[in-house]
Design brief:
Layout lengths: L6 E14 L12 E5 L4 E6 L7 E13 L10 H11 L5 E4 L4 E6 L3 H10 L3 E2 L1
Parallel strand pairs: 1-7
Antiparallel strand pairs: 1-3, 1-4, 2-3, 4-6, 5-6
Length: about 130
């Protein structure tokens, strides 16, 4: 998949980025649930409606989009190019990757600006 063929799909939800107090607070059956555990923390990105009540830190007000399709592991710089375009437009990102693709989250107040900047750079926004 070439960069000029990339399609970005808006996700129609509000998202929360938080630190979960424990793994028992995370419902892995939710539609969107990006969980990460390290030796220092347990992080979670999920739909705001699904955020656990018991968190140690929480940041609401995120909107997201994904790169459509399955990205081959040999592809280079996809996330970097998108984040550079957004950085040039003063938009901070929070990104997570799944086996198939990348998901990019921006604060809700910057979402339309982000979509416009990426469309202007040649990405197709669905």
């Amino acid at each position: 998949m070439k960069e000029n063929e990339m399609k970005l799909k808006k996700l129609p939800y509000d998202f929360t980025v938080c630190q979960a107090a424990s793994a028992e607070d995370i419902d892995l059956n939710n539609e969107f649930c990006f969980a990460a555990k390290t030796d220092e923390e347990m992080s979670l990105v999920c739909k705001t409606a699904d955020a656990p009540a018991n968190t140690t830190a929480r940041d609401d007000g995120w909107k997201g989009f994904r790169i459509q399709g399955v990205l081959d592991f040999s592809l280079i710089g996809i996330l970097s190019k998108i984040s550079n375009i957004l950085a040039e437009n003063g938009i901070a990102v929070f990104a997570v990757s799944s086996f198939n693709t990348d998901y990019i989250f921006v604060k809700a107040g910057n979402f339309d600006k982000a979509m416009d900047a990426l469309a202007d750079a040649g990405y197709t926004v669905e």
